[in-house]
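To illustrate the input format used throughout this study, we show a single complete record. The first block contains the structure-token representation of the backbone; no residue identities are included at this stage. The design step must infer an amino acid for every position from geometry alone.
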């Protein structure tokens, strides 16, 4: 076993190299609401969240098992739409759905187990990205934009009218785009520490500092937020970017020249932006400092999503 508990996926040595596995569950009323998410969107998102975990480990997603829990009154057409969404995502990221199970449940849920592989370098070392790999002096960088998914969720909760900006935010919430192609190239570029932003930047960065026994400083003015988020939530955008969650962007640390290399790679892979938002400090262990929009430095509260709250 190469990687067990504490990262985005487990990794172990097999006869044919290094294998990888992750699993995730989406539960009605906890992770989605039927009035806000279509069945097809649910199918896409359920698989996409797992693909994102594999990308954060530097692996390639290959085979998926799907367990679906639905009420006995569920319409066949709805289930077909869910599986269409799964198929859409599977085709987009070259994943084969090879089996699963269907059970009766009062609440709808989807559990996916995703299996894949991790490439090795020329010496046979597996190209695994770890949460514990951050080193003092490295920069902190993130792909894409932060806060859009949370903005989409907030717009549902507050009953916002469907403007083009709100539509973009809701699409980010219901149909996330995992950075699989970028994740598969991070190790070769020189990155050793990465994870996906699923529970919110503040909380996920704290995983990095605790497991790496380092500290971190980030600047609010550098947070990459979309025009749609700025326009829809002009006074809340920075909070949503810091604490929202479900962005499924890649957060990584690396030397400046490595971040520059990743920026070039991402530009070639569809023009995904890469933004440097901070730096890794020697300590204190687990502490994350925020330089806010007023220039004041303060400890950053964890915030974000708590699975057991």
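Output of the design step:
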């Amino acid at each position: 076993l190469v990687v067990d508990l504490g990262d985005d996926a487990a990794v172990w040595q097999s006869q044919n190299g290094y294998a990888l596995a992750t699993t995730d569950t989406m539960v009605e009323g906890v992770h989605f609401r039927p009035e806000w998410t279509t069945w097809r969107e649910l199918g896409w998102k359920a698989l996409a969240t797992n693909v994102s975990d594999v990308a954060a480990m530097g692996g390639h997603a290959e085979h998926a098992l799907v367990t679906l829990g639905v009420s006995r009154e569920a319409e066949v057409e709805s289930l077909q739409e869910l599986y269409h969404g799964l198929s859409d995502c599977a085709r987009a990221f070259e994943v084969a759905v090879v089996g699963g199970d269907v059970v009766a449940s009062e609440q709808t849920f989807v559990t996916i187990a995703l299996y894949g592989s991790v490439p090795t370098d020329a010496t046979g070392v597996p190209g695994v990205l770890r949460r514990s790999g951050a080193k003092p002096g490295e920069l902190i960088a993130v792909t894409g934009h932060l806060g859009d998914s949370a903005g989409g969720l907030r717009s549902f909760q507050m009953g916002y009218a469907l403007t083009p900006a709100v539509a973009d935010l809701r699409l980010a919430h219901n149909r996330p785009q995992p950075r699989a192609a970028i994740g598969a190239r991070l190790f070769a570029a020189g990155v050793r520490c990465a994870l996906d932003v699923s529970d919110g930047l503040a909380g996920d960065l704290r995983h990095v500092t605790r497991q790496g026994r380092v500290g971190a400083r980030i600047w609010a003015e550098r947070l990459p937020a979309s025009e749609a988020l700025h326009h829809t939530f002009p006074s809340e955008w920075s909070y949503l970017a810091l604490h929202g969650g479900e962005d499924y962007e890649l957060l990584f640390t690396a030397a400046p020249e490595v971040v520059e290399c990743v920026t070039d790679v991402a530009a070639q892979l569809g023009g995904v932006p890469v933004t440097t938002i901070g730096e890794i400090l020697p300590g204190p262990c687990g502490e994350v400092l925020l330089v806010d929009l007023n220039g004041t430095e303060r400890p950053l509260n964890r915030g974000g999503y708590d699975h057991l709250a």
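Structural context for interpreting the output: The chain is about 35% helix and 25% strand. Residues 304-309 have pLDDT under 50 and may be disordered.
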